[in-house]
């Protein structure tokens, strides 16, 4: 992922937090069927992010009917977590020769996907996902007959991805002057939920304290999307 150093976030805890807050992510990798050689596919899935191992662990499940799980099993997989994003008006800037841009948060995680095959392990994945999103449904799930649960679990393919590498890009106007950053923060804080989320991250991460060389490098990238 193209990430200027003034947008780069490498704090492990912050990256995992951003992933959890945006856990409906996209898995990218080859499709590789005989009829589509060289093709790639993307699958949108709700995921669980755990602070296990050196860089963290991603778990989830595919629909068994989705052929993507077959292609990704045992392969390096890219998982993209897209966070809050927003248009930034040039009226926030003090220079007249300014153009719009976009602020956003993105985290990319890489690792080898392995399948979770056993019915007990797949039930654990489903149960943990229920606990995260609707804990009140857990008792009802357990009240279903064993046969019904087995049928439901047979329709999914569980997986885990131990994270080998992780990249975080928090594009939050770090390349602008303090006055301009305050203007952007004020505009975001008064805006949509996504804009307010960006304002929260701007306040939390504060100013990076760019040195003059960093600022000159950043200045040239200030109005470019990417």
TrEMBL record:
Annotated source species: Candidatus Sulfuritelmatomonas gaucii
Lineage of source species: Bacteria, Pseudomonadati, Acidobacteriota, Terriglobia, Terriglobales
Gene3D superfamilies reported in the protein's UniProt record: Electron Transport, Fmn-binding Protein, Chain A
Identification of the protein by name: Negative transcriptional regulator
Disordered: annotated segments: 205-226
């Amino acid at each position: 992922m193209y990430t200027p150093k003034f947008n780069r976030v490498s704090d492990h805890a912050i990256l995992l937090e951003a992933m959890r807050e945006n856990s409906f992510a996209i898995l990218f990798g080859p499709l590789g069927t005989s009829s589509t050689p060289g093709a790639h596919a993307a699958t949108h899935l709700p995921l669980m992010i755990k602070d296990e191992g050196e860089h963290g662990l991603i778990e989830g499940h595919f629909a068994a009917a989705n052929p993507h799980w077959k292609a990704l099993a045992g392969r390096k997989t890219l998982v993209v977590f897209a966070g809050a994003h927003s248009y930034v008006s040039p009226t926030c800037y003090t220079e007249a020769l300014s153009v719009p841009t976009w602020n956003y948060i993105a985290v990319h995680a890489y690792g080898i996907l392995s399948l979770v095959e056993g019915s007990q392990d797949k039930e654990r994945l489903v149960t943990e996902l229920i606990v995260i999103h609707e804990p009140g449904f857990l008792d009802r799930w357990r009240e279903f007959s064993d046969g019904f649960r087995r049928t439901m679990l047979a329709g999914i393919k569980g997986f885990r991805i131990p994270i080998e590498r992780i990249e975080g890009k928090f594009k939050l106007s770090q390349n602008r002057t303090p006055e301009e950053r305050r203007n952007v923060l004020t505009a975001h804080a008064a805006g949509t939920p996504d804009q307010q989320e960006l304002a929260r991250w701007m306040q939390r991460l504060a100013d990076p304290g760019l040195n003059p060389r960093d600022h000159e490098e950043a200045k040239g990238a200030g109005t470019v999307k990417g």
